[in-house]
Fold this protein.
Amino acid sequence: MTRQPAKAWWEFSDALPDGEVLLPVQTDQGLIMAVRRGHMSEELLVELNKVLEHLIGTGRWNPGEDGGHDDDGGDGDDTP
């Protein structure tokens, strides 16, 4: 079975919990970076989506099922 490429994107949401401005949400379709409307311009959201597309497309970042978090405490060093 061929694995689908990982996906991630930014989108505006009017359904974030009170007090939250940004919330990563893992779904079956990929990682959504949900942003409260009014806290980011549409232009910035579009540019961030372009950056994510580039990072994922070139293999520099794989959001994977854990949202791209390090398993070793988050120091950025993924050396086993």
